[in-house]
Amino acid sequence: MTRHIAWLGLVLALSTRSTAQAPPSRVNTIGERWPFAADGSVRIVNPLGRIRVIGWDVDSLAVGARGPGRLAAAGTAGVRTLVVTGRAELEVRVPRGARVWVKSVSADIDVVGVDGTLDLNSVTGAIHVVGTPADVTAETMGGPVELAGGTGRARVKTVSGGILLRGASVDLGASTLSGTIVVRAAGWQRGGTGVQRGKFESVTGDVRFDGELGRGGIVELESQSGAIALRVPGTTVADFDLLTIGGSVTNRLTADIAQRGALRFSTGAGGAQVTARSFKGSISVEAK
Amino acid sequence: MMCSEREAQLNEYVDGMLAAEARALVETHLAVCAGCREAVAELRALVDGARGLPRAIEPTSELWTGIAGRIGKGERGKGKRWWRGALAAAAALIMGFAIYRLLPSSAVFYGPEVDGWAAAQIDYARATDELAGALALERDRLEPSTVALLERNLGVIDAALRESRDALTRDPGNVELRALFAAAARQKVELLRWATRAAT
User: Fold this and answer.
1) Looking at chain B from residue 140 to 169, which residues have their Cβ under 8 Å from any Cβ of chain A?
2) Which of A61, A167, A211, B95 lies at a C-alpha separation of 20 to 30 Å from A259?
3) Does the pLDDT value for residue A55 go beyond 90?
4) Is the pLDDT of residue A21 over 70?
5) Pairwise CA distance, residues A272 & B19, whole Å
């Protein structure tokens, strides 16, 4: 009897020990696919890990997930929701014209080749978009945001992350508190129309606009203490209105000289309107 | 239904911000687009409604008693979070209104409204306190790294606001300074709203 109790104790002790040493949760690998409308709407929630959304020319939605987190999916061929509890590496393929809504905590969000509307939100993750979506809203508190390829309309907000907007876009808005904003906007000769409307705001981060202005476009740049730098083609036709209260204005585009931090000049009628305002940052304008 | 690509332009049209040429183009479009005409009518109604808003929005004493009572009991749970969400939303509404007033209106360009400006700053300070209070109750739900990021950037924005406010003390009628102060205030609003949303 005593021997039996001893064996039982040994077995229990070993099982307890093996449980304690086991990984907190096992790794799941999931692959699912559903029919999906070409302009369907997909909502993705994945707090930790990574989210990759890829547009494809197929009317179906496919998801591959790997990680300890659990994936729950629900919806129809028009609207589908994918929610991860825990951590997962998520890859979702959607029709190119789909509307995509993504929310994460620290997971990075990558979107490639989606032409529909994107609404991407993270607390500290990075957001990267490559392609030509019609409309992008991207917000992250601590991560950077990069849009490459061009969009019809983009609204980007960060707190400390840098913002890089590249490509031929028409309507751009970017706002950051301590990050840097860099806009490299392609123009007509590369198939774009130049920026028709742009508003770029920062508190301490620098703002750099390096691109082409759409004819009749309106571009506003604003900072509290960050430097504002404009580089535009020498042939740009625009009215410039530059003002810094505590900084300096440098003009290398024309011979006009700033007085007491203010400079207004025009390179021709009927062009774009460019306004730059800073509390104590410097403002410069030069030819590309 | 409004033409979505014209949304921004119609807003500027209603605000009277468009140049003559752009305004004429919009009016030509409005003549043939019922959806955009309807949108313009709605925007005008909204702007008129905003003009009629009171200078300050005082919450009822019953509301505050209820909220204070619930906070004082130290309850945790969905009900409390709902109240905090409501509090944050109310603060955001008040702050949004304050920021709206902080922004230079066309009237400011022709004559400074010192009383309105001072009242707007008081609204802003009160609303910021309320939203920060709502956030303080939920901050333990945020990751420590997010809290650190938040505090660092609140420090940055507060320093920027202090500088702008000091400059405004020296030059109170400066419209550009007011606009920069309003922009920085809006950034703080966004940051607090963001953090509150992330926490709840």
Assistant:
1) 143, 145-146, 149-150, 152-153, 156-157, 160, 163-164, 167
2) A211
3) yes
4) no
5) 12
Render A195-207 in DSSP notation, one character per residue: EEEEEEEESSS-E
Chain B nearest C-alpha distance from A8 (Å): 44
Which of the two residues, A175 and B176, has the higher pLDDT score?
A: A175
Q: What is the per-residue pLDDT for A227? A: 96
CATH 1.20.120 in chain B, residue ranges? 76-199
Mean per-residue pLDDT over chain A, rounded: 87
More confident residue, A240 or B146: A240
Of all residues in chain B, the one with the smallest CA distance to A153 is B5
The pLDDT assigned to B95 comes to 58
Q: For domain B76-199, which architecture applies?
A: Up-down Bundle (1.20)
> Is A204's pLDDT higher than 60?
yes
At B91-130, the pLDDT tens digits run 655 655 555 555 544 333 334 444 566 777 777 777 778 7
The whole-angstrom separation of Cα A84 and Cα A82 is 7
Chain-centroid distance of CA A9 in Å reads 57
Judge whether A90 and A44 are in contact, CB under 8 Å.
Answer: yes
CB atoms B143 and A106 under 8 Å: yes
The arithmetic mean of pLDDT across residues A97-113, rounded, is: 96
Task: Residue A198: name the closest of A156, A250, A159, A235 by CA.
Answer: A156
Residue-range domain boundaries for chain A: 25-110, 144-288
If residue B7 lies in a helix (H) or strand (E), which one and from where to where?
helix B7-14
For residue B72, the one-letter residue type is G
Which residues are CB-neighbours of A234 under 8 A, at least 6 positions away?
A253, A287, A288
Percent of chain A topping pLDDT 90: 70
Q: Residue written as tokens 């043939």? A: B32
Integer angstrom CA distances of residue A286 from A164, A172, A260, A261, A262: 20, 21, 19, 16, 16
- For residue B188, what is the enclosing H or E element? helix B175-199
For chain B, the maximum distance between any two Cα atoms, rounded to a whole number of angstroms, is: 61
Q: Which residues of chain B does A157 touch, with a Cβ-Cβ cutoff of 8 Å?
A: 190
Largest CA distance in chain A: 104
Q: What is the pLDDT of residue B97?
A: 56
Buried b or exposed e, range B24-42, using 16+ CB within 10 angstroms: eebeebbeebeebeebbee
